[in-house]
Structure formats: C-alpha cells, structure tokens
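Archive maintenance. Older records in this collection stored only the sequence; we are now back-filling the structure field for every entry so that each record is complete. The fields below show one back-filled record exactly as it appears after the update. Entries are processed alphabetically, and non-specific serine/threonine protein kinase is next in the queue.

ARCHIVE ENTRY
Title: non-specific serine/threonine protein kinase
Organism field: Streptomyces echinatus
Length field: 644
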Amino acid sequence: MDTTLSDPLVGQLLDGRYRVDARIAAGGMATVYRALDTRLDRVLALKVMHPTLASDGSFVERFIREAKSVARLDHPNVVQVFDQGTDGSYVYLAMEYIAGCTLRDVLRERGAVQPRAALDILEPVLAALGAAHRAGFVHRDMKPENVLIGDDGRVKVADFGLVRSVDTVTSTTGAVLGTVSYLAPEQIEQGTTDPRVDVYACGVLLYEMLTGTKPHSGDSPAQVLYKHIHEDVPPPSALVPGLPYQLDELVASATARTPDLRPHDAVALLAQVREARRPLTDEQLDALPPQALTAEHDNGEDRTSVIPRALTVPRPLPVDEDVPDGAGDGIDRTARFQSPPVPGRLRPARPRHAVLALITAVLVVFGVGAGIWYINSGQFTKVPPLLTKTETQAKARLKSAGLDVGQVKRAYSDTVKRGTVIGSDPAPGARIRDHDSVTLTVSLGPETVNVPNVEGKPLAKAQARLTADGLEPGMVTREFSEDVDKGSVIRTTPDAGTKRHAGSAIALVVSKGSPIDVPDVTGDDLDSAKEELTNAGLKVRIAAGRVNSEFDDGKVARQSPGDGSQAAEGDTVTLTLSKGPEMIEVPDVVGDSVDDAHDALEGAGFEVDEDRGLLGLFGDTVKEQSVEGGDRAPKGSTITITIR
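Back-filled structure field:
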C-alpha cells in the first residue's frame, strides 16, 4: 500500500513554492518528501517537522540549527540545505535530493560488504565530518541511516539535526541525544560531546559494514548502553576470519572507550584509514565476508536491488541511451528513489536497416576476431592460481605453465603464512604471452616491531624514538621515582623488547621525581610557613578568603595537600589563612542541673569541664561557670562549671 496516499502534504504546494510529490521517509522528528521547486524548476528533498513538535521551541531551534550549520559546510560529501521556512504549522528544510539509497539499505540487503566497499564509504563520510569538525561542529548522530549513497556512487552525510558547536555546553538533561548503538561512552555517562564521539560512531559503522552486525546488542537499550561503557568493541576479525589486522586496529583506535586514546577528530581518523588501507592487497580488499548475503530472497527478489552501481561494479559501464538503466548487470535501478515512468511513452523502434547493419558489423568483428584467435592462440596462456602456494611451489607452477618468474617482492601480512604467495602481477587468471614473466609477492608474515628501550629518556625523546621505530606513543601516566629524573620515562607498557604490530600504541610511565614529604605548617605565621615549604622544594599559593579556625587571625588555618602527604618537587601547596576563632554567646547555666547545663553548653558548640571539689561530690546544681552567661567565647573552647 502506498503510504503517501493518506499523507495530507502530498500533492500540496508548500509555502507557495514547493510542490510535494511523494513521501520518501519518516522519522521521529520529521518526514522527508520528494518535491519540486516550482520557482527554480528543480527536484529537491523537503524535510518537514511533525506539526505536533512545531510548538516545542527546543525542537524548532534544533531544526533551524541544522539549516544554519549545514549551510556553513560547503563540502561535496555533505547534503546541502537550500532553504528553511515555515508555512502555517509546517516547519521545513529544503535540501539537496539524492537519488539512491542509505547505508542502512545496503547493510539490510547485503548483510556485510567487502573491505574495499567499506573503506570507500567510510572515507567520504570522514571527509564530510572532518569539514564539520574543523568548522567547529559535532554531528552527534552518525549512523547508517544518515549516510546516503547516490546511484552514481557518491556518498553524502545527512541529518545534522543534532549538530552542536564544539564551543557550546553539550551536556543533556533527562535524555541522551543520538542512537544507542552508536553512542560513545562519554555521551552516555556525562552527556558531553566533542568530535571524538563522531569518531567513535564511525568506528562502529566500520565494524558493522565489515561484519554485518553491531558490536553490542541486548534485549533493551539499557543493556546496549551498559556494554558501550564497560566492554570494548571486539575486533571484526573475530567474526570475519582472515580480515587484515590493520582493519582490527582501525576499529580499536576509533572505538577506544577512553576518548583520549581515539583520533582527535574525523580528519585524524581519515589519515589513519588511508594509512591502514595502503598495504592491503586487492585480495584482502575484495575478500567477500561470510556474512555477506549474496543469495536471493526466499520470494525470489534480487538482494542487490538497492545497491548502487558504484558498490557492485568495479568500473562504471558506458551509458547507452537505448539500453534500460542497469541492463546486463543484474541490478534493478528502478527499485528505489526513481521517478515512475510516464504513461504512454514508448521507446522508438530502431529502423530496420540499422538493425541489419548492426548484425553485419557484429558478424564481421566476430569473424576477424576468430581468425586472430586461431593464428595466435598458441602464443598465450593464463596465469595459474598461485595464492597460498609456497614460493617454491609457485615458481614450479609458473614454469610448468610456460611462464617465467620475474621479480619476487616481499610484504608483511597478518593473515598469510610467511613464505606463502599473497599476490602476483599479472593476477591469476590473466591471459599473457608464453614465457612472459610474472612478479610474485611473498608474505614476510605479520609485521612486528620490537618495543625500544626508552627508560631514562626524557618524554619527548622517548615519544620520538617510538615514532621512528614505527610505533605510536600512547597514554602517559606519572608516578614518583627515586631513581629516574623528573620528566623521564620509568617504563613502558608493554615492556622493552616485546614484539608488537607496527603502529601499535605504547603506554609510557613518566617520573614525577623523588617524593617530598609535605611539612605541617598549620598554626604557623604565613612567612615561616612559606619559608618551610620553599626550603622543601615546594611552591606556595595563598587561597582567596579566610576562614574561622582555632588559630589566631593571620595564622595558617589549613593546607592542601596536608600533613603526611607526598608531592613532587615544584608542586604547589595551597594555604588558607585564619581569621581567628568564631566567637559565640555563652548560655547562662547557673542554677541548672548538671545534665541541663551540659546539653545547653555543648549544643552551643562548647566543651564542658566539671569542678565539684569536696562540697560538690554529691551535688547536682551549677553554682558558677568560668565564662558568664551572655559573654562571648571562641567556638569549641572549654567552659568549666562549678557544682555544689
């Protein structure tokens, strides 16, 4: 059933300009329509806020913020916003119309995609987000539904409705904005965001494209949120055996639960993606994941019906005006986002003489080609299958096929055994002349690097050494050391000499120097307190304002860190000065019973001492008090009561 038939906007002219032709999609906040701009005569997409939300100022503000934000992002991979306005109860955005499908459609139909397709989609997404991040914005709701793939293969990012300026306060109250499967841990725990939340979401996107499933699942959104906070995203190779380790490390880097361990924005992640892609072979990039759904639906429908040509055909085919769009490649290009055919329009028939000429030309070409093949067929052969063969086996197979072995190259591989062929040029199956040479690429096994010994080196030099050796400087923590100078490396994690993949992050523990016992200067004059702390190698800071304390005015009332603490040389101790004890009025307890006197004085904040003497051993009434009732005394001081 066509849901657009019951939509009151379909067929209407919105704001006197936009003719609404069909409904494309509906979400919780807005509905998207295909429309015609009657003023400029162009097809566009109209995003219309649900009228029930238009009365909510926060929703309208977010809606308008999308228009203003995207209008500032002049980037080929961002869906452009042309106009924003209102018509009665309708608030709308006029946007670029993309004929094609969403990444969600691709994953729904394909299950998972090849690494090449996943990276081809991810790179323009990161380019778009990078432009947003460098312009000071965070998307905050990256998910497959917001990645549009045009029929021409162009990838664009849409729906900046949750976009926020990096400089604005992004904490949320009562709800977390975004989609639970793609939320970064800090979005869930603190409700705060920066470009690294988009980096996290893109890591989840990559995992989902490679494996066909989300990394965290549960029976409720709360369970998914809990896993984002407490569980790492697993390596995609756990579900796709043989996936290059570079892709595992890319996902791990982007989805690190600690924001500081992720690339700082989409531009940095894009650089990592390109670096990870560079050493991958065609076989690795084009490997079909076992989760890919290549079979047909049970009802006979083609599962590739919504996949754009760019994701299914290595090279675009020539356009023939007389051939239906997609003919010959098994792809139904009219399945989604296509205008319906105009009734009554028929394709003009070819003239009969043109058909005859075409048949004659084909026969001539076939005849000439057959003759050439007959003459030269004995001079050509196909490159035999060589993958997974040892170098010796591959050379023998080439020799038996009448081919020579040219250059033998070596390359690292995390998935192919050392000494085994991982590629050839030309590739297996290629047709080449007899005795031509074939270049072999043989695996060196996993590329590993020994963690260098940087103990005792200054932090900057240690980080430079790690980078020079092909490793990444990781998280830096600091602790006291009696043996290592302040600012120099105590140890690394993993330890020096450990083998790690190139590009792995190495954590560093840096010395804070020898610990200093912080002296107790409470109750001292300010000058003497400063002198004692300075002599100990510490700096002094005086807190603003003074507090009441047991010490006289101008003395040190308290310090931070306090007595018994340890600090590093050059650390700062904060001193708070006293303005003297708090003076309070003393209750009059003469004539009261001993118990009542205790209650009154202690309740006022005083300590109580009793003086009974011989005459008061059996008495129960207060005859005198050391400070008369009504006078003022320091809070916490002792009042002595005489009992008779």
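Update note: The domain at 100-319+330-339 is CATH 1.10.510.10 (Transferase(Phosphotransferase); domain 1). The CA atoms of residues 176 and 188 lie 7 Å apart.
Entry marked complete.
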